[in-house]
TrEMBL record:
InterPro entries: RNA_pol_sigma-70-like (IPR039425), RNA_pol_sigma-70_dom (IPR014284), RNA_pol_sigma70_r2 (IPR007627), RNA_pol_sigma70_r4_t2 (IPR013249), RNA_pol_sigma_r2 (IPR013325), RNA_pol_sigma_r3/r4-like (IPR013324), WH-like_DNA-bd_sf (IPR036388). It comes from the Bacteria. Residues 139-187 form the RNA polymerase sigma factor 70 region 4 type domain. It comes from Spirosoma fluviale. Belongs to the sigma-70 factor family. ECF subfamily. Residues 40-102 form the RNA polymerase sigma-70 region domain. This is RNA polymerase sigma factor, sigma-70 family. Keywords: Sigma factor, Transcription, Transcription regulation. GO terms for biological process: DNA-templated transcription initiation. The lineage of its organism: Bacteria, Pseudomonadati, Bacteroidota, Cytophagia, Cytophagales.
Length: 212
């Protein structure tokens, strides 16, 4: 099955509405329901592609790993354990595959330091504020300047809307490290965007990022 050549909806809306939550669709998939399997694919494919791009820029590798993931998932469906969140499970599985192919062991190398994590009420509004100001393109460019691990953590937290605990689980790090990736990434983003706001109007975004 080539999961990247599907262009038409795989099921009608009434079919999709059979499952009220992830637990039900996952159970149907485990029992061999192909529509449930296709529904899992439809609901998660874009999330997986976007998340994979935070780990590697090799789009072919991302596509190969996603295809392998869904093929293996279907082949081993009867032995698949029950999951609370299909998206969480698939993101974590994709990460494992990509890391394995990149021959990188996801171990924490940053020095563990104690820091305050009650930043979310203020710092976490950064993404929403910049989007409201029609600076989505600028924010996307600034995000690309961050280290891969910080990009990955911020993507999971704010674009995939996972909790900090879930981010830690998907990335294979402890809770404190996940918070640190998010916190440090947000601080760097704020600093970068503040610098840009001080530039003369004649400066283009391209000129700014070219000199960094």
């Amino acid at each position: 099955m080539n999961v990247f050549k599907q262009t038409k909806p795989l099921m009608s809306l009434p079919d999709a509405e059979r499952w009220a939550n992830d637990a039900q669709v996952w159970q149907a998939f485990k029992q061999g329901n192909r529509e449930a399997f296709e529904f899992l694919y439809q609901q998660n494919i874009q999330h997986l592609i976007q998340y994979g791009s935070k780990i590697t820029s090799d789009r072919s590798l991302i596509q190969d790993c996603i295809q392998d993931l869904f093929v293996e998932l279907w082949d081993s469906r009867e032995n698949a354990s029950q999951v609370a969140s299909a998206k969480h499970y698939l993101l974590k599985s994709l990460r494992y595959k990509l890391i394995r192919y990149l021959q990188y062991t996801p171990t924490e190398t940053l020095e563990e330091t104690k820091f305050v994590t009650d930043y979310e009420n203020g710092e976490s509004q950064l993404l929403q504020q910049e989007t409201v100001r029609s600076q989505g393109h600028l924010l996307a460019a600034a995000l690309k300047l961050l280290p891969k691990r910080q990009q990955e953590a911020i993507h999971l937290r704010y674009f995939e809307e996972l909790s900090n605990e879930e981010v830690a689980q998907v990335m294979g790090v402890n809770y404190q490290s996940a918070c640190k990736f998010i916190y440090t990434g947000l601080k760097t983003l704020r600093h970068t965007l503040q610098l840009i706001s001080l530039l003369p109007p004649v400066w283009s975004i391209y000129q700014f990022f070219k000199i960094l």
